[in-house]
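Appendix B. One record, verbatim.
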Amino acid sequence: MDRREFLAFLAGTTAATRFGCPGPQESRVIGIQLYTVRRLMTADAERTLKALADIGYREVELAGLYGKTPAEFRKLLDGSDLNAPATHIGINELRNGFSKVLDDSAILGHKWIIVPSLPAADQTVDGYKRVADLLNETGAKARPLGFRTGFHNHSAEFKVIDGQRGFDLLLANTDPALVDFELDLFWIRSGGADALDYFKRYPGRFRAVHVKDMAADGKQVNVGEGVIDFAGIFPEADRVGVRHYFVEHDQPADPLNDVRKSFLATRKLLNG
């Protein structure tokens, strides 16, 4: 078995045991983007992961390994009974070193390799098209191994450039068979766009959302404490194929207490 065959086998085994079969009937799962608790993860990753599992989270989305090797981090996940279906990987790692990204993703049990943001140089019409080409290219390499590439928005992608939004350019120029999108519900609102509009125009392109709330003054707050209409958004998200709901807060005042509140609020909203 060569390296490519081994990666495909490992990814397929991981997907079967940790993700189930993706599709319309896949259960919705509440997870958390570990950037929210990054200071706690840096201090004690094992204890933090177990605390998140105790709250009720079943999935985490990675944004770095906090000094651990992929094998060491996978052991911590398994010990806390947590899955890591997605990771945020900088675009330069897709451009230079994608083979290592695939190797690490197989060990960690990822399915989605998501670009979380773009440098200013890529936030032009031509730049967005180049990024779309890169996502297609890496998505084609990833697909036979059981992975998919993806993109996570901030507010900048909704700025109109020459009559077009960057986010629309990415959606229009990526292959749905290869590339998925993770919609950040805070940043799309901050950018002046509407999540429901994108669900309507691009059904099936979104597999995950970032669940973070916005106060009336535009600041981030715990889920359920702000003005975002999750009760209106979640049913439509579910209808168009979103299955992973990752809680996130960039600057929580009391991280574990705050993510507990957000988990409870998200669970209540998803259950109606």
